[in-house]
């Protein structure tokens, strides 16, 4: 009989020490070797240690016939360990990479179930880390990608933790054999058309045959690169602190940065700072796509350049770069007559407007700029709206959705712009609250 890796439980407890006060530990339980060992370890540790509430989550992708039997297998294992099991069925979106689509669906399910103070535990180990490093190296990843899988990261309202990253697959197999555990062997893991399987079965054996410590060395390199990424993140925070300056258009509620401060950095530091800023907003562009940033910075001062990214757009205006997503990328619709000006008026895809002070006499309507509008100002006479917006350096992306108050064909006010937003003589102002939708935060 195989010898038990007796230090594995103590190593696992040590790795999980920062999360001992969590409300709930949820194990991502595929039924495979890694997650079976992790669940078994935790279930037995819970008998002798005060641990958070333990449960398991099995995600059923429905991608192969064999997988239909896996939820039942997982239920048998969990019943034997007296661990509650939650089976989640997901739809995998068709795409170029089935591996990535399945992973995205799986982690979307995990995220939705991870509540505040919850920890989702996954079974990735040191061999997986080495494969990840090599896989990303072959795809041309940068420092962040080559730092491998983090031991912890935010997920949903809680955290994802990988407590076995310092454990080898051989150690997990030894533990499973000693305790006579049964696990699922996914047939797709042998299909070498998938890149990771090719690396695992074809490339890694050759590497470790020549360099037995290859996987340990790769994991160590990933740790070095994680440290390098931490330094880059610290530098980005220093640089961004100079770019997050007050804006005259803070009421837009949009993330923005001072363009001059950002453009004053070296090209490498610009990319580093901007990547750090964009990371919670959108999937980051690859190296070739960064030319869009260069074009945005280099555009003429009177231009309105746009850099389109996966989940939104960067615009330039009023000396700043702005992040737009969601409703901000949809054209607002002209609204009907404002029948009850004493109540806020909802604007489709554009927030709402309301009055402060005395409500002006009607009939009133909110419209959007078409060109050629003229506003009468006290002491200045009739002024072209385009010139007034230029004087106030209103960003181009705002101009087409800035609410304009009309009475018949007379333009009475432009929301939120001091001096244009109402009548001091009659004691009223028009206020616009742009849409409160999260700006692409993921």
UniProtKB/TrEMBL annotation:
Domain Lysidine-tRNA(Ile) synthetase C-terminal: from-to ranges: 364-432
Top-level taxon: Bacteria
CDD domains: TilS_N (cd01992)
Location (main, coarse): cytoplasm
UniProt-listed GO biological process terms: tRNA modification
EC numbers on record: 6.3.4.19
Residues annotated to bind ATP: 30-35
Molecular function as annotated in GO: ATP binding; tRNA(Ile)-lysidine synthase activity
Presence of keyword Protease: no
Cell compartments where the protein resides: Cytoplasm
Family: Belongs to the tRNA(Ile)-lysidine synthase family.
PANTHER family noted in UniProt: TRNA(ILE)-LYSIDINE SYNTHASE-RELATED
Domain notes: The N-terminal region contains the highly conserved SGGXDS motif, predicted to be a P-loop motif involved in ATP binding.
Protein name as it appears in the record: tRNA(Ile)-lysidine synthase
The species this protein was found in: Pseudomonas koreensis
Gene: tilS
